[in-house]
Amino acid sequence: MGSQRAGGNRATVAELVLAAAKKRAVSVNIVEWPGGEPKQIDLNVTPQMFASVRKGRMAVPLGDGPDLAHVAGLPWGSIATVQSAGEKLDRIVGPGLLADR
């Protein structure tokens, strides 16, 4: 149970770290990765993809060779402005994920 508890539940891990730090009189700050202040990015997409996002699509393919340093490290709560043919939608996003095509 110990390894499942420590590896599978972020809240439990945070509690354990805070308890250990308090016991050792060490100051710690628990931050969800990637942390930091939310950012804003622009994503230009096809009209078809834009229509899908408008209808609720949750994932947007980033195409070949996205700037991984830019999209994979987005802090949670960042804003992506999805745009196509003069239309724009803002969506709250987190770090990009690698998916098979």
List the helices and strands and how they pair.
Blueprint: H1 2-8, H2 10-23, E1 40-44, H3 47-54, H4 68-71, E2 78-84, E3 87-93
Parallel strand pairs: 1-2
Antiparallel strand pairs: 2-3
Helix pairs in contact: 1-2
What would you note in describing this structure?
There is one protein chain. Strand 2 and strand 3 (87-93) form a beta hairpin. Residues 1-7 have low confidence and may be disordered. This protein is elongated. The chain folds into two domains: 1-30, no CATH class; 36-101. Strands 1-2-3 form a three-stranded mixed beta sheet. Helix content is 33%, strand content 19%. By secondary structure, it is an alpha+beta fold.
Taking all residues together, what is the mean pLDDT?
83
Poorly predicted residue ranges:
1-7
- How large a portion of the residues is in β-strands, by DSSP E? 15-25%
Q: How many strands, which pairing sense, and closed or not: the largest β-sheet?
A: 3 strands, mixed
The total count of strands amounts to 3
* CA gyration radius, whole angstroms: 18 Å
Give the spatial strand order of the biggest sheet.
1-2-3
Number of helix segments?
4
**Helix share bin:** 25-40%
Structural class: alpha+beta
- The coarse silhouette is elongated
Order of helices and strands: HHEHHEE
- Give the number of domains: 2
Give the termini separation.
36 Å
Keywords:
101 residues; alpha+beta; three-stranded mixed β-sheet; 4 helices; 3 strands; 19% strand; elongated
Summarize the model shown.
This protein is an alpha+beta fold and 101 residues long. Helix content is 33%, strand content 19%.
